[in-house]
Design brief:
heterodimer; A: about 425 residues; FAD/NAD(P)-binding domain; 8-stranded mixed β-sheet; globular; B: Ubiquitin-like (UB roll); Arc Repressor Mutant, subunit A; 6 domains; 6-stranded mixed β-sheet; binds flavin-adenine dinucleotide
Chain lengths: ~425, ~900
């Protein structure tokens, strides 16, 4: 029944209290100490920590479209740190710790919700891999539990744990501290805080080339003219390979479309975040009430931000396998981002072959959760001219030495 | 009961078929042909929702898919969240209720079926209004294959609401129905426009039948249509204006009111004020007046009109009066229960935009419309392109139909179009916000409760992009995805920022154009059809013997065969004992098999495998390892040389498809000059492993023509022969360390072979075994399972398979990586055996650490109880493992650490004495 006139907002119907001022819209200066290329979450966080942690405030973030309109605006916002390898656990756990106080740090309601993440296991080998990850996580100080199917059901009653489905749920890993946050608000929080510290956020400014002389970067060419820079920090996600190529750097990245979708607003049904690789699903119910779901990666390469339809159909079959109650929910909107994937599916964060040019890319399908952590470490890398210990393993060099951090093959869990 | 707002006659509803339904707990009646919205209006129910954020009462606002307010929850016959009452066809027994922003999912399983289908055509026409009908009829006259889609239950589009030219519609519809190559799909919404003219649509097949829907029919069907040419004739949606209290129930789009009167025979109110920026509202006013609605005032916002605008609207639950204001500030309160608004029309550009086309702002039109430069093979006709005159729409439609047919290679004929009046009238004005009034009640997005004040707040923060404002305010993110509010929002934001609307642009349109159910998209790919179940030719036998199954890739493999009361552990100990002491057999048919042929087959396999294959003699078998370019093991298996130019390669069960993809990728993209053909023959050959010290006797009994002697049939060779009277290929290979054979026969003969072996082995107690026993047997011998003992970070050397890496070959996939510093580093993780000191069974996945100070070494990859060893053991990957042999390390258990002794990985028969029996 319709409620009384003027009653309180329905759950999730209210808007958070956004601040009244977010950022200036300055004209670019002739040069900066540091130029960050790409105003996604990573670029904005990096600019913020450069100013906040290192006192470097003569910084511009150059964004070719609207701030945080790339993958930052398109991801499914899953945050977790239960990665297999020590190197990954290091940076993602650092990030998760930062998430836990980010709302206060930025003084922005980012809707960070530690509702836990379940990673389902659907085969005997999934179980082995999952138990292995739980043991690895615990040794790294990351909270992790192995749950049997009935425990899975206690945490998320709508998961179909019946043995009759095609790939029954054998159990799950559970990270209680994991969760979701509102991506836009995170970006705006960083943007506002960086702007307040003096960082220039420049939108509709596309970097079309890097200026390099004597093996050293000196600035950038943009559609708004040339801008000089002492240091240039790339953070252009799916387009990093394109920008780096202008300095003659051939990065081991493949860019693919990755799609996601939302349903209409629904009464609460899904209390946590569920991810499954075998039955490819990752889904949560956002604070407003919509189901947010990621689809599989499109296998072809491209920069088009358009995925193919059969990927969405496949996604829905998988969703209904695990969540039959979703049958009559409706897809309201689908979209695609461009994810930059390295051969070992781990990021590249560190130095480049060109002096004073830094790389942050290759986060592929899972870099949202890293936003605070990578901003922190990348800022350190740029400020000191050498990697922070937490991103040192993620060097470009590793593709030469073979010291890969292969979450792909080993953990087979993305996002 | 009374339907007091139903007109005495007229409309397209079937007054002879009354239908009963419930809304918010009350019983009503409507007619077949009604929507839920029209039936509610007929009963005087206009207020249908409270708004999400502010809880303000809201009424039916539109008459179609664009409705922002009347979003309802269906409860019976089956719960479905968030449907627009304006598109729900009424049926007997419908139970629905209003909701406040959130729908509810059923807590019981959906019994309905869903499916999908493909269609191909020369010309796809989307939209069955005047332009679409003219296009489809013209294209169909050429003999081209034409598909016409329309989301309504009947053709006609805007003509249904206008009540015009319906005879022509019927004639055209009849002609299309009779045309051989033409398919007309009503109740079908095109919701996605992908690359290469791939249009996807959903057909609602049984919804309108309610509880009478036949269970065997799919409820919804997804059409995946590939069209040579597409004609978009998707029409236009009317939009509102931003003025104070523009959300009151009773404020309705003028065109919607016209539709309610003409199509449904329903009066949306008794006394109306009209507010408009264009001529279309006059047609609405005329039709409403003719049906008996009193038109109290018309406020025309165009320059040259008399200067009245709407200042405020009174009435909480329903409009009671409209306050008009003159240019000089004079106000006039007009009693009315209806305020008809037309803020102009927006061409429905969603599909055009999805197709990759750009929507450009047309200042004359005051709207965004297709710019005409889409890269796909499509044409736009009628209101979808911004032409609102009926005669023009018909002509554009006919022309588009002709051009599309022509582009597809057909010649169309002219069709008969109805007589229409010359276009005449006054151009529209582009107006967004009306002056004065409280910006906090000037709504731009009714569903998300977004007002002009909210937009102003967003632009005040420094936001300059339409996308930011959308995300800050949530305007355009609701169920209607901004169908009525989107352009208005852009207009108001442009005004606030002082920029051109065209420069600001709209937010992006994405699929789906209208919400589509998850179930429709999933179609039939659910349950067992989610992923095909693959079973071997012996599956029935395994089932009948009570085997439990393990999913391995898509295959169901017997896991173990418990006898009365046995658990996994007991059954596996028994099965293992049989294999080590007597004879046992396993269905190994799921192993991937690829037939590799061609003059360069040997060369190709040399590049693919780490070891040398080309030197293999016909008649011989070699074990091989494949790596990725990073030097990490990808798959392993045996290679049989059948002839000079022909090999049979086996892969692991789970990786068979990936390996075939892999070899094809290399052949097709890197080495196209190699003359090699690869064919999967996994399902042509059934394979039975016959294992154990007595296996030779059993084989001899069923293969009298085969010399099974140690000397006559050496290890790693194969023979073509007859087994149990069946043509068979027998290989002497062993994955257990025991004397063993793999017997391959045609898939069809598998059961005959299997039963013959069972019979021949019965005297020796022949025992079928499953994957678990297979795993234990191979682990006792230290043979790794790729994917279990490896994880994509393990080299052949790490596994102790360095002997299988050729030092002689010039190159092979992965070779270069073995010299990389990290890959060549000593102390990498290596495969070793573990013997738990306390005899416990280590959990697979447990980690291994050194004593204090604790350092992590690696993890347990496999762990079993061994009948042969009389104890538990494990395999593990640990750093510098081979150097730790003989030392104690610690395994992480849930409740602490357990000491284990590191051993070599071969725990059983290290000398290999059992291999030849
Ligand atoms: C559908 C989808 C779902 C995802 N789900 C998750 C998830 O659940 N959890 C998770 O952790 N991660 C997820 N991700 C990944 C995550 O979104 C990305 O890894 C992360 O956002 C990348 O960092 P970013 O925010 O800086 O990237 P972006 O937001 O893409 O920022 C890069 C910016 O660079 C700009 N740019 C590019 N080229 C230039 C140029 N030449 N000049 C100037 N600017 C330029 C772009 O416009 C863009 O704004 C998902 C990604 C997608 C697409």
């Amino acid at each position: 029944m319709a409620g009384p006139v003027g009653s309180r907002p329905a759950p999730g119907g209210d808007l958070p209290e956004h601040p009244d001022r977010l950022w200036r819209n300055p004209e670019p200066k002739a040069s900066y100490d540091v130029i960050v290329v790409g105003g996604g979450g990573h670029g904005l966080a990096t600019a913020y920590y450069l100013a906040k942690n290192h006192g470097i405030t003569d910084v511009a973030v150059l964004e070719r479209g609207w701030l945080a309109g790339g993958n930052m605006a398109r991801n499914t916002t899953i945050i977790r740190s239960n990665y297999l390898w020590d190197e990954s656990a290091g940076i993602y756990e650092h990030s998760l710790k930062l998430w836990e106080s980010l709302e206060q740090e930025l003084d922005y309601p980012i809707l960070f919700s530690q509702r836990g993440v379940l990673n389902l296991a659907h085969s005997l080998q999934d179980v082995r891999d999952s138990v292995r990850r739980v043991h690895a996580n615990r040794l790294n100080g990351v909270d992790a539990e192995w749950l049997d199917p009935s425990q899975v059901r206690e945490i998320c009653p709508i998961v179909n744990i019946s043995p009759d489905v095609r790939y029954p749920v054998h159990g799950a890993t559970y990270q209680p501290r994991a969760g979701i946050a509102k991506h836009d608000y995170v970006a705006w929080g960083y943007a506002r805080a960086a702007d307040a510290l003096g960082v220039d956020l420049i939108q509709n400014c596309e970097v079309q080339g890097l200026r390099v002389s004597n093996g050293r970067v000196t600035g950038v060419h943009t559609n708004l003219g040339d801008i000089g820079a002492g240091k240039v920090a790339l953070s252009a996600a799916g387009h990093t390979s394109v920008v780096a190529a202008t300095a003659g750097i051939d990065l081991p990245l493949q860019s693919h479309p990755l799609q996601a979708l939302v349903s209409e607003l629904l009464e609460p049904v899904h209390p946590t975040v569920v991810m499954s690789n075998a039955v490819h699903v990752y889904v949560s119910q956002a604070h407003k009430g919509e189901l947010v779901m990621g689809a599989g990666i499109d296998t072809w390469n491209g920069y088009g931000q358009r995925g193919a339809f059969h990927i969405i159909e496949r996604q829905m079959s998988a969703a209904l396998e695990l969540f039959p109650v979703f049958a009559r929910a409706h897809v309201l909107r689908t979209w695609g981002g461009i994810v930059d994937v390295t051969p070992d599916a781990s990021p590249i964060v560190g130095l480049s072959p060109v002096e004073n040019l830094y790389l942050n890319c290759g986060w592929g399908t899972g870099g949202f959760k890293a936003t605070p952590g990578v901003g922190w470490c990348y800022a350190h890398t740029v400020a000191h001219g050498e990697p922070h210990p937490l991103n040192a393993p993620f060097s470009l060099e590793r593709f030469v030495t073979g010291a890969l951090v292969d979450e792909h093959g080993a953990a087979a869990v993305a996002h | 009961m009374s339907q007091e707002f139903r007109t005495a006659q007229g409309g397209l509803v079937d007054r002879g078929t009354p239908l009963s339904f419930r809304f918010d707990g009350r019983e009503y009646q409507g007619f077949r042909g009604d929507t839920l919205a029209s039936a509610l209006l007929a009963n005087g129910v206009l207020r249908v929702a409270d708004s999400l954020r502010l809880g303000r009462p809201r009424g039916i606002f539109a008459a179609g898919i664009e409705e922002p307010n009347a979003i309802v929850q269906i409860e019976e016959p089956f719960p479905e969240p968030m449907l627009t009452a304006t598109t729900v066809e009424l049926y007997d027994g419908l139970v629905a209720r209003s909701l406040r922003g959130h729908g509810r999912l059923a807590d019981r399983p959906d019994p309905a079926r869903y499916d999908s289908t493909h269609a191909h055509c020369d010309v796809l026409v989307i939209g069955g209004g005047p332009a679409g009908l003219a296009a489809a009829a013209t294209a169909a006259s050429s003999g081209a294959r034409v598909i016409l889609l329309d989301d309504q239950p009947r053709l006609g589009g805007s003509l249904l609401g206008a009540g015009e030219h319906l005879d022509w519609v019927d004639t055209v519809a009849a002609g299309l129905a009779a045309a051989d190559e033409t398919r007309v799909l009503t109740r079908t919404t095109a919701f996605g426009y992908y690359d290469d003219n791939h249009v996807v649509a959903v057909e609602r097949r049984t919804n309108h039948l309610g509880a009478l829907a036949p269970a065997h029919l799919s409820r919804e069907r997804v059409w995946r249509i590939r069209a040579r040419q597409v004609v978009l004739a998707t029409g236009a949606h009317e939009r509102s204006l931003a003025f104070a209290d523009n959300d009151r129930p009773g404020v309705m789009l003028a065109g919607a009111a016209r539709t309610y009167v003409n199509r449904y025979g329903v009066l949306p109110g008794r006394r109306a004020v009209v507010l408009t920026t264009n001529d279309s509202a006059y047609a609405a006013a005329r039709d409403l007046a003719a049906a008996g609605v009193e038109i109290a005032a018309i406020a025309d916002l165009r320059p040259g009109a008399d200067g009245w605008t709407v200042a405020r609207v009174h009435g909480e639950e329903r409009v009671s009066a409209v306050v008009l204001r003159n240019e000089d500030g004079t106000e006039r309160e007009v009693d009315a229960d209806l305020l008809l608004v037309s803020g102009g029309w927006n061409p429905v550009g969603a599909l055009y935009s999805q197709a990759g086309g750009r929507l450009a702002y047309d200042p004359e039109l005051g709207a965004f419309r297709p710019d005409g430069n889409c890269r796909q093979a499509l044409l736009v006709a009628g209101a979808a392109g911004g032409s609102y005159d009926i005669g023009v729409c018909l002509a554009e439609g006919a022309a588009a139909g002709e051009r599309a047919a022509d582009a597809a290679g057909f010649t169309a004929r002219a069709i008969v179009l109805p007589e229409t009046l010359d276009p005449a009238g006054t151009p529209p004005a582009a107006v967004w916000t009306l002056p004065g009034g409280d910006a906090a009640t000037q709504f731009v997005d009714l569903q998300r409760d977004v007002t002009v004040a909210d937009l102003a707040r967003a632009t005040g923060t420094g936001m300059r992009s339409a996308e930011h404002v959308k995300r800050y305010t949530t305007a355009g993110t609701a169920h209607d995805q901004g169908k009525t509010g989107g352009t208005l929002t852009s207009g108001v934001v442009a005004e606030l920022l002082g920029v051109e609307v065209g420069a600001l642009g709209t937010t992006t349109f994405r699929p789906p154009y209208a919400p589509v159910s998850f179930a429709a998209l999933a179609g039939r790919d659910r349950g067992l059809l989610f992923d095909p179940v693959r079973v071997t030719a012996l599956h029935g036998w395994h089932v009948s013997r009570g085997a439990l199954f393990e999913n391995v890739g898509q295959w169901k493999r017997p896991w173990y065969y418990p006898r009365d009361g046995e658990d996994l552990s007991a059954a596996v100990l028994r099965e293992c004992r049989a294999a080590r002491e007597g004879v046992a057999m396993m269905d190994a048919s799921t192993l991937g098999k690829i037939d590799v042929q061609g003059p360069d087959a040997g060369e190709f396999l040399d590049r693919l495998y780490t070891n040398l294959i080309s030197t293999l003699k016909p008649g011989a078998i070699r074990y091989g390892v494949m790596c990725r370019p990073d030097g990490m093991v990808f798959d392993d298996g045996t290679v049989i040389r059948l002839a000079e130019e022909r090999f049979l390669v086996t892969t692991t069960t789970g990786n068979a498809a990936a390996v075939l993809d892999w070899v094809e990728e290399w052949l097709q993209t890197e080495w196209p000059q190699l003359r090699v053909r690869c064919t999967s023959v996994t399902e042509q050959w059934a394979t039975v492993a016959l294992v154990g010290p007595r296996s030779r006797e059993v084989l001899a009994a069923v293969a009298p023509g085969l010399d099974v002697s140690r000397a006559g049939f050496g290890f790693m060779t194969w023979r073509d022969t007859e087994v149990a009277g069946l043509r068979a290929r027998v290989c002497r290979i062993s994955f257990s360390g025991e004397l063993a054979y793999e017997i391959n026969v045609s898939w069809w003969d598998a059961l005959a072979l299997w039963e013959a072996l069972i019979e021949a082995g019965s005297a020796h107690g022949i025992t079928p075994y499953g994957t678990e026993t297979m795993h234990v047997l191979r682990a006792e011998k230290g043979y790794p399972i790729i994917g279990q003992d490896t994880d994509g970070t393990v080299t052949p050397h790490d596994l102790g398979l360095g002997w299988a890496v050729s030092k002689k070959k010039a190159d092979f996939i992965g070779k270069r990586s073995f010299s990389r510093t990290d890959t060549a580093r000593p102390g990498r993780k290596q495969l070793v055996g573990l013997l738990p000191d306390g005899g416990e069974l280590l959990p697979e996945g447990a980690h291994l650490v050194t004593g204090a100070p604790q350092r992590v070494l690696g993890h347990v990859t496999s762990s079993y109880r061994s009948a042969a060893l009389g104890r538990t053991f494990a395999l593990a990957l640990i750093s510098g493992g081979r150097d730790l042999i003989g030392q104690t390390v610690w395994a992480t258990l849930d409740d602490g650490l357990a000491p284990v002794t590191v051993t070599g990985s071969v725990l059983y028969d290290p000398e290999g004495t059992r291999r030849d029996g």
